[in-house]
Amino acid sequence: MDKNAVFLGARDQIEKEYKCDVCIQAKATLKPYYTQSDREYEVGELLHTDLVHAVSPSHKGNKYFLMIKDQRSSYQVAYFQKTKEAEVMVSNLMDAVNMFATQTGRAVRRIKSQKGTEFRKSRLESFVSE
Q1: What would the pLDDT profile of 63-117 be if each residue is shown by its tens digit?
Q2: pLDDT over 90 for what percent of the chain?
Q3: Which CATH fold topology does 41-129 show?
Q4: CA atoms of 72 and 40, how far apart (whole Å)
Q5: Taking every pair of C-alpha atoms in the chain, what is the biggest distance, in angstroms?
Q6: CB count, 10 Å around CB of 93?
Q7: Model's pTM, two decimal places?
Q8: Distance between CA 92 and CA 80 in Å, rounded?
Q9: Beta strand extents in 46-104 (DSSP E only)
Q10: Could you tell me if 92 and 66 are in contact, meaning their C-beta atoms sit under 8 angstroms apart?
Q11: What is the domain partition of the chain in residue ranges?
């Protein structure tokens, strides 16, 4: 008897209900990442980021969340946002970078994203250059 039979059936139903054609088309146009090196990063040195639009707003009205994941440890942090406003996203990203540096004792060396426009703001660029 398969223990996951009920779960698998529920997952298939959820995927059918929440299939968003716009999301599929938007993601299909993104180009793949190119690997730059096979260097092994220590915990906290390489962070992956993505600003995600939630399927439905939270009970506090948040429609977006900024997901930040450490390459080495797979530790994840989520910051919830009401808007896609760049200033809020940059502030949350700066907070996460400082948190990882404080907790690990290492500086963040690289931040990877999907090259979205929200990540190309002057405040973020000046923070990263510091």
Answers
A1: 999 999 999 899 999 999 998 887 888 889 889 999 999 999 999 888 888 766 6
A2: 22
A3: Nucleotidyltransferase; domain 5 (3.30.420)
A4: 8
A5: 57
A6: 24
A7: 0.65
A8: 9
A9: 46-53, 64-70, 76-81
A10: yes
A11: 41-129
